[in-house]
Amino acid sequence: MALQMTIGRRLLPGLGAALLARPALAFPERTLRIISPFNPGSLSDIVARALAQPLSGVLRQPVVVENRFGAGGGIGAAAAARAPADGHTIFLGMVDVMAVNPFTYRSLAYDPERDFAPVSFVTHVPTALIAGPSRPDINSFADLVAAAKRSPGGLSYASWGVGSTSQLSFERIARPAGTSFLHVPFTGAAPAVQAVLASQVDAMVLPAGAAAAMARGGGTRLLAVASPGRLPLVPDVPTLAELGLPLSLSLWQAVYVPARTPVPIIAQLNGALRQAMQAPGFVEVVRSQAGSPEPGSPEELAAFERSERQAWGAVVRELEIHLE
Questions:
Q1: Phi and psi angles of residue 168, each rounded to the nearest 5 degrees, phi first
Q2: Amino acid 25: pLDDT
Q3: Rounded Cα distance, 133 and 200, in Å
Q4: Phi then psi for 311, rounded to 5 degrees?
Q5: How far apart are CA 195 and CA 176, in angstroms?
Q6: Ordered alpha helix ranges (H), the chain
Q7: Global pTM value
């Protein structure tokens, strides 16, 4: 651990490259797997598969994606935490799994801080607020607020689960605006989106890339983005800050390995990830989701994760959400 804390951000790329050339480490010596804790087609799955191909090229071993979904990402996280700590199992964690679940679930089969070693941040994917075809009268954030105030609880919003960031994000938007909505949870993002498109639910917060694609298809309207500034993907859509709500809400992704993974292997993976995230194909996929590659050091990821737990934990406590 002392050695890990002395590795500076500037040294990691060079150290990772050097370790890649050291056969004495015997890593990697077989296929690696990336565990994605959400279902195929989810944001986590999209990022994991985009990362697997260039990472395979850098490490010169096959890299496969394994979807282990359920329990808000907890099933995949628990499986990754129990894997051998030899670097051959990589976990693509995200905000729900690493920063929200510890507060929403009464009993969690993993501990985000104790059971995982951080490797590198990957990306922030900003979120967006949409209104669906069930409410063609809502074309702006002001329209949504006005409609909700006229009929408290009369408008509905979809999420990919109770206690998920999609629910918490919507509540973080609705409550300061003085409005209330009916929450309709689903078992994943795909069925939630389908419910909005089918006019069964009125609104939703979801990744900006998916929201932009839905708006291009017609029927849904992008009301606002929850990002620090306007997004090049949808430059005409205002930020929540512009509309009077200084909120920035993202579905961040990051790479972890099981705790007790040797520090030299973590450094090697960090260096390999930095190279893989420069691949044009990966960059294009992340940009299509309104994000950008953001590799960093294990220490930076650990500090960021702690701050995120504090922020999301406060929201969960305020909403008094508890899951078994």
A1: -60, -40
A2: 58
A3: 9
A4: -65, -50
A5: 26
A6: 2-5, 11-20, 43-59, 74-82, 95, 101-104, 141-150, 165-174, 189-197, 208-217, 263-276, 280-288, 298-319
A7: 0.86
